[in-house]
Design a protein that fits this description.
mainly alpha, MetI-like fold
């Protein structure tokens, strides 16, 4: 197939993915606005109470500056348009409590969460590949045990798993610090807490392809030439079996970012998880909305990049795009 023959369908596929990404982001932005508008009570009073730390009735004179600042006296559609326009400019608003731009509040802690999520996804891949190669195609008993472990680990809640790892590996054995930090030792247990369920989920998709590839003619040919089982799996089978896991990597990164909210609490790590929990506790809605929008952006961008990479990795998609 010539370059010009597949360029048009590939560009059409990419355009479709971009439209989907924009629709998801628009839906997220709309839902966050509706969630704020639908909250019971007077929003101006809620904002002023959060700022002052006192929950009490307010006079119209006290509320007037808040109403003007946030445009709460304008029609709802105008407020919605302003909300979308601000997000397009990268303006997530100002924290009610900290009196700082939400972008700055999140940026202070974002790096630690992104690093944790990336390490967790990388660790999940290592665990998934090692387990799949070890158990796939090894007979009904071993293969069944491998599937069972993947199903169980994929369903483990982060909070429960994090507490178990903390009690056993940190408190009981003393191998890791009890309170997580940004260093390597303090990151491993939180990353493992996120990685184990991800590895189980990715492993279920990879195992099927791995077992299918093991029965292909090219595998029989490699073995007929005297190649050992380990070499066949690593050099020929693995690259064919990893395509489903590659397609799920964008989801895995987004899941690691959202799961970090819980994990950072368990291990007392810095990150946007702490920021979000504190914002929810203090009813600081701009920060809550900012974190939700940010996670949605990560989900969409990661999935979009994975889709584009999938077109490069798998030539079949370029022919059928």
């Amino acid at each position: 197939m010539t370059r010009t023959s597949w360029a048009e369908p590939v560009l059409r596929r990419v355009a479709g993915r971009l439209v989907w990404a924009l629709l998801v982001l628009w839906g997220t932005a709309s839902l966050t606005f509706l969630a704020q508008a639908a909250l019971p009570g007077d929003r101006a009073t809620a904002i002023l109470n959060v700022r002052t730390g006192n929950a009490e009735a307010r006079t119209e004179a006290e509320l007037a500056p808040i109403v003007r600042e946030y445009g709460l006296d304008r029609p709802l559609l105008v407020q919605y348009a302003d909300h979308l326009a601000a997000l397009l400019r990268g303006d997530l608003g100002t924290s009610y409590q900290q009196h700082r731009p939400v972008v700055e509040v999140i940026a202070d802690q974002l790096g630690a969460t992104v690093v944790l999520a990336l390490v967790a996804v990388a660790l999940a891949w290592v665990l998934m590949v090692a387990w799949a190669l070890l158990t796939a195609g090894r007979g009904r008993l071993v293969g069944g045990a491998g599937r069972l472990v993947e199903v169980v680990t994929a369903g483990l809640p982060h909070y429960w798993l994090g507490v178990i790892l903390l009690l056993v590996l940190a408190l009981r054995l003393g191998w890791f610090p009890v309170i997580g930090g940004t260093g390597a030792a303090g990151m491993l247990l939180p990353a493992l807490t996120l990685a184990v369920p991800l590895a189980g989920f990715l492993g279920q998709a990879t195992r099927t392809e791995l077992e299918r590839a093991l029965g292909q003619p090219f595998v029989l040919s490699a073995r007929a030439r005297g190649m050992g089982d380990t070499a066949v799996r690593l050099r020929h089978v693995l690259r064919h079996a990893l395509l489903p896991a590659v397609s799920l990597s964008g989801w895995a990164l987004g899941a690691a970012l959202s799961g970090s909210v819980v994990v950072e609490q368990v291990f007392t790590r810095p990150g946007i998880g702490q920021v979000l929990v504190n914002a929810v506790g203090s009813q600081d809605l701009p920060i809550v909305v900012g974190v939700v929008v940010l996670v949605a952006v990560f989900y969409v961008v990661a999935n979009l990049l994975v889709d584009l990479a999938y077109l490069v990795v798998d030539p079949r998609l370029r022919r059928s795009a």
